[in-house]
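Section 4.2 – Deliverable D4.2 (structural model, holo form)

The reporting period included a commitment to supply a predicted holo structure for the target in complex with guanosine-5'-triphosphate. Inputs used:
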Amino acid sequence: MTPQDQALLDRVAALIDSDAYRGHPLHEALSQLYAHHLEQRERLERLISIADGFQQTAHEDLHATRHQLQRQLKRQRKLSRIADRYQALLRERNAALADAATLDPLTGLANRRLLHEQLQRLAADAHRHGRVFTLAMIDIDHFKRINDHHGHAAGDRLLVALAKTLASELRGADHCARWGGEEFLVVLPATSLDQAETLVARLCERLRALSVTFEGERLRLTASVGVAQHRLDDDYATTIQRADEALLEAKREGRDRWRTAD
Ligand SMILES: Nc1nc2c(ncn2[C@@H]2O[C@H](COP(=O)(O)OP(=O)(O)OP(=O)(O)O)[C@@H](O)[C@H]2O)c(=O)[nH]1
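Output (structure tokens):
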């Protein structure tokens, strides 16, 4: 209420209370009007106070709801971060499991199982489309002697060095696996026997030149190799067997050489 409004009301109250106007014909009507006004004002103030209360409660509710939403959002973000981390961990574990199932832990080359899968595909491809591939079975010569003279750890170092040499000499499309203890199988897709022989001769040379220093001692090795070209109607196990026979021949003939299956 403005000060002018209050002054007017004070004036009206003073007129009503004044003895000079008590008998005035408008006195009663003015008194009733004044009382009615006060009543109305009181009701209005009550309404305003109720509306204020509502507004306050609504404000508090809104605040509480916003706070709750923010907490939920925070919790959700945390959960999604945990889920992301968990997923990344699962991916890592899966990759590690896949590696463990398909790679040789010492050399990092494919293991026998993975090469079987690759050979299955290549043999099917050869059968369907007439694409030849060639195998080379590589076996370190007198590896037992190396282990016996220098220890198993030294032998392991040589195996790793040999695997690295093979990997660096092969093309991207070639496959190479650790087939057994000191035996490695190289698969050369779309490669003729002549091409394979050139590559194997170079591999033997590289292995002859390989030298590893282990605990102050220089270790060297040679390897014997059996080469076999896959025949379109054979299964790949037969080709491996032929490469193995050629390898035995190379061993029999004095080692550090390669022989080709008929
Ligand atoms: N250091 C090491 N040695 C291994 C591993 N796997 C197999 N060997 C050894 O490789 C040797 C293979 O011996 P043999 O099969 O008699 O063949 P070799 O001595 O190489 O003789 P030839 O093959 O006839 O030239 C054994 O002494 C095995 O213990 C390995 O992971 N690490």
